[in-house]
Amino acid sequence: MASTTAAAASQPAAPSLALPPSQFARLQPHAYLLAHLSPPASSQQPSIRANGRAPSQFRVTSANTGSLTHTNGSAVVRVGDTTAVCGVKAEILHTEDIASWSVSHSSSSPSNKRRKLTNPTEKPGEDREDGSKDDEDDDNSYIEDFSLLVPNLSLSTGCAPGFIPGAPPSALAQSLSHQILSLLHSSRLVRAEDLEIWYQRPNFGAEELERHNEGEQMDVDAGPEAEEANLEAREIKAFWVLYIDIMIISLAGNPFDAAWTAVLAALRDTKLPRAWWDVDNETVVCSDLVSEARKLSLRGLPVASSFGVFEADAAAGWRAVVIPDAEEERKLAESERKGIQRRWILADPDGYEEGLTQERVSLVVDKTSNGKVKLLKMEKNGGFAVDRKELKDLVDISARRWDDINQILQRC
Amino acid sequence: MGGPIAVLHPLDRADGSASYKCPSTGSNILGSVNAPIELPGRRDALKPEEATIEVFVKPGTAPGGVGERYVEGILRTALGRVILGREKGYPRRGVVITLAIVGGESVGRGGSYLPLLPALLHTATLALLSASVPLSVTLSATVLAVNSAGEITREPSAKEVTTATSLHVLAFTSKGHLLLNESEGTFTFDTWDDVYERALAICHGSSTFGSDGDVAMAETTEGQPLDGIVRDTVEDHIHRDYAWKIDAA
Amino acid sequence: MSSPLILLPGDEVPSEYLPNSSAPLRLGPGLRLLSQPPATKPSKHVLTATQAGILSTDNKRNAVSILSTSNRRYVPTSNDLIIAQVHHSSADYFHCMITPQSPHALLGQLSFEGATKKTRPQLKGGDLVYARVLSTGLGPGAEIELTCVNPATGKAEPGGLGPLNGGMVFDISTGMAARLIRASSSSSDQQEGVAGLVVLDELGKKLEKAGGFEIAVGRNGKVWVDCSNSEDDAVRATVAIGRCITTIDEHNLNPTDQRKLVTRILREMKIES
Q1: Which residues of chain B lie closer than 8 angstroms to C139, CB-CB?
Q2: pLDDT tens-digit profile of B12-59?
Q3: Record's Gene Ontology CC terms (chain C) (predicted)?
Q4: For residue A148, which of A67, A61, A236 has the smallest C-alpha distance?
Q5: Is the separation of the CB atoms in C205 and C241 below 8 Å?
């Protein structure tokens, strides 16, 4: 592979001008990658990326969970040379420390049904197709309203050249943090019920109940509330807050996929100790029995896959950009079918390829138990090459990637 | 529901500026563009052969956070593909786009920026036009919400956003390319395909399905296409600027 | 030419708007040659606009260009006539301000008509000069150089370059400045005025008795007016002229309204004509 490229570069000129492939890759990155992707027809070589992968092939991915013992859940995910470490730390948030709690809570009863009616931020009726798993959708707004998930991503010093110590979080790190947070919210991966810490009211007499109600700002409508409380006899006293810290210790392109896979693996690994409200000490008490700790039950398995578009036009780097009409685009696509490929959609671009691609596509897909593919996020930006047809193909590729990641995560 | 209201060049001191108000989503954006300008102190960070594009999004009430960095990144990538940063006078200089969210719902921590994104894109495009920054094409964008019943709502209100199962922002160039797509929520590809058709009709008026009759239908149901609103705003402004020339001719 | 054609970036220039001559076509600002002409008509020029504006075709010079939005920040270009304000002086140069936001421009102490080490003008901070942009330099951070003399002839060409004494400066838009320069530099025998401006002719006629006035227009959006010949009325007449020009600029008045405005302002300011 490398020999063909070097030969193309040096022409049949003096042999002293021949460059080793590594130098050619640095001097003419675009031509180097193009030469790999479109080898001369005579050479009988397949079109392959400079890193040896086929255009739609992802890098080798490995995951390892539970290696950080002081966290509630952790994972190390390696996608090629990009490595992300994720740790999940759970902390307790008392409801009396939530400023808006008493307002939002005392106006509605602890029952989920009432809350659903009064809170406009609910998403009713979603996802009913695989009913058995997904019926407790209602209280998800707790997670968004009280910020129960706090992801933070840092690109550590030395993960790639250019990351110097002491610099403030780069725009990349900030936007990745936001992407992970908004994906956690929009995919509703974590169930709010897993994060709730309840007080199971023992079945005492009425006077005991009354005494209790005074202590917790519910006395305004204590009359009707007391009756209902008899039925319910339990209430939320605290929440677990999950601090999800992601550190990219080696950055070689496509940080989002690695970071998200690490978050996913770490959350699957997360165990929360059994916790309850101790009414005598007025505090939350946790059990130290490992056998009593329980795992989070996550909603589905959203898998992220990213793509970059590499354009064959070598001059695109310096010439004024010419944008063909949509009609000309179609002609272009036709010529592609005849075998003259002008652009390649590269799955899981590495650092070298990211520098050569402008247009990016990022997909998050999940498969339901009956094998149906659903999309959770679809982003495309920075170019004109990817349109409906291309996106449809990419969804299929991402669905295959889902199977791979699913297997990898099942194993660890 | 009225159409969006766009004003070109409301600010005197900036090279170019625009304000854009979308009544149905309630977003109101004021944007300014300064270009080409010298970016001080970062000579080595400037690209030698093209302009450096900077986008700043200022939320109305709170200080900017990670959400703003993210949406700035989206805008920079999308506009970077449209701005001709290699034209004379632009290399090694900066194109600075500042967008202030003047009214409408503010975006909370981890909240979605998608309902605001079309207004931000339109404001930026109009401001770039009024600053006479060379562009390869103009663009128009829209946001669509799909609810659990599968109904597609154009430019949803804040309340409709919270009840939606998925949100989609699509931006098209004036030549009909899909420049940007941002979708979140739970949806299938077929849903997105319907959304695409609808968004194309909203932005360009001409829908791709069927005969001429269908096209006319699409235009009447969607009102004036957004592409046309951008064009009209610019044409009105130029007419006013060159009234002396046009009247004399 | 038929009604003016307004183009937006990405629009193609229709071929009927191009001058049909065999001579090479000159492309002005805002237009670009598509380097990939569509296969259907490869011989034709396909031009696309890169800025929004009116397409303007000059058949004589065989040129097309886009007239973009007019009221923009002034960007110095060689050979522009501008009104600069001296900020401070150093051993060899006067450091001048062209616009408040741009860095200072340099004006050589000897770049004046007939200036020698001994006879060079003594300008203080705040003094005004009417100067020509000599060079803008290349790349960022380059200095802008001004001159008040044609280096080839040693004369102040065009006339009037040099320090501006007395009078008053008014801020106008850069678009208005360009129109005023066209209006004041061409012959005034046209009926409707040049560039839609009749204000200077009108003022000239009305103020002839009062001693006339001097005017200098800088492309950087400044206009300097002086009526020192009109003795008692000097200040009032200067302010009146300034008001006329700035009002027309702000409200984009047409020739009829311009005449009305001139009459009204001169009456208000009690200047007999």
Answers
A1: 92
A2: 778 899 999 988 888 899 999 998 887 776 656 667 778 889 999 998
A3: cytoplasmic exosome (RNase complex); nuclear exosome (RNase complex)
A4: A236
A5: no
Chain A residues in contact with C35 (beta carbon < 8 A): 319-320, 322
DSSP B1-63: -PPPEEEE---SSSSEEEEEEETTTTEEEEEEEEEEEPPTT-GGGS-SSSPEEEEEEE-SSSP
Q: Find the mean pLDDT for residues B74-91.
A: 87
Beta pairing class for B94-103 and B52-58: parallel
CA–CA distance from C259 to each of C170, C241, C273 (Å)? Answer: 20, 13, 14
CB contact under 8 A, A323 and C10: yes
On whether any CB of chain C is under 8 Å from the CB of A41, the answer is no
User: Based on the structure, what is the number of domains in chain C?
Assistant: 3
What are the distances in angstroms from CA C204 to CA A19, A35, C164, C184, C249? 75, 72, 20, 11, 18
The tokens for C223 are 């206009």
pLDDT, tens digit, 9 for 90 and up, residues C175-224: 888 888 887 766 545 555 667 788 888 888 888 877 788 899 999 999 99
DSSP E strands: which ranges in A1-139?
A: 61-65, 73-79, 82-94
Nearest Cα of chain A lies from the Cα of B22 at a distance, in angstroms, of 22
Same domain, C102 and C51: no
Are B132 and C69 in contact (CB < 8 Å)? yes
The pLDDT of residue C35 is: 53
Query: CATH number, domain at C224?
Result: 3.30.1370.10
Burial of A200 (0-12, 13-18, 19+ CB in 10 A): exposed
Cα gap A383→A386, rounded to integer Å = 7
Judged by CB atoms closer than 8 Å, whether chains meet at A324 and C35 is answered as no
CB pair distance less than 8 Å for A322 and C34:
yes
Across the interface, do A185 and B78 touch by the CB < 8 Å criterion?
no
B109 and chain A in contact, CB less than 8 A: yes
CATH code, domain carrying B136 = 3.30.230.70
Domain A61-297 class, CATH top level: alpha beta
Residue A132: band (very low, low, confident or very high) from pLDDT cuts 50, 70, 90: very low
Contacts with B235 from chain C: Cβ below 8 Å: 6
What's residue A58's pLDDT?
95
The answer to whether B174 and A135 are in contact (CB under 8 A) is no
- Distance between CA atoms of A267 and A300, rounded to whole angstroms? 12
Scanning A82-123, the segments in alpha helix (DSSP H) are 101-106, 112-118
Tens-place pLDDT, residues A196-244? 998 877 765 555 545 555 444 444 444 555 555 555 567 888 999 999 9
Number of domains in chain B: 1
Tokens of C248: 């027309």
Interface confidence, given as ipTM, is 0.87
- Domain end among C109, C140, C164: C164
Least Cα distance to C259 among C220, C212, C202 occurs for C202
In chain C, what residues touch A325 (CB-CB under 8 Å)? 38
Rounded to two decimals, the pTM is 0.83
User: DSSP assignment of A172-218, as one string?
Assistant: HHHHHHHHHHHHHHHHT-S-HHHHEEEEE-----HHHHHHHHHTTT-
Cα distances from A186 to residues A257, A299, B53, in angstroms, run 17, 11, 30
